[in-house]
Q: What sequence folds into this?
């Protein structure tokens, strides 16, 4: 295998790992959104709990947006942008 092929394979593996991390980090807030929506619909929460669920939902949406922004950044194929290392810090 040539050095260029090794580099391409390493970059591809890095990209795959980064995508797996983003998918994991986006899946968690989706579960929180589902749970919060369920309790808002079925739990007849008082104003305090309702405010809490809405805050948690907003935070979860921000985490999902951050994960999508990272995927968008990773999809930029300009030579200056190499795939990020397999980390999605700030999403968890």
A:
């Amino acid at each position: 295998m040539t050095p260029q092929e090794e580099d391409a394979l390493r970059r591809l593996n890095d990209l795959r790992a980064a995508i797996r991390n983003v998918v994991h980090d986006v899946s968690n807030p989706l579960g929180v959104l589902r749970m919060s929506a369920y309790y808002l619909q079925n739990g007849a929460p008082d104003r305090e709990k309702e405010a809490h669920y809405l805050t948690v939902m907003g935070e979860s949406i921000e985490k999902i947006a951050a994960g999508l922004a990272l995927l968008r950044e990773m999809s930029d194929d300009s030579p200056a942008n190499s795939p990020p290392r397999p980390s999605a810090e700030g999403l968890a």
About this structure: Confidence is low (pLDDT under 50) at residues 83-89. The chain has two helices and no strands. Residues 25-74 form one domain.
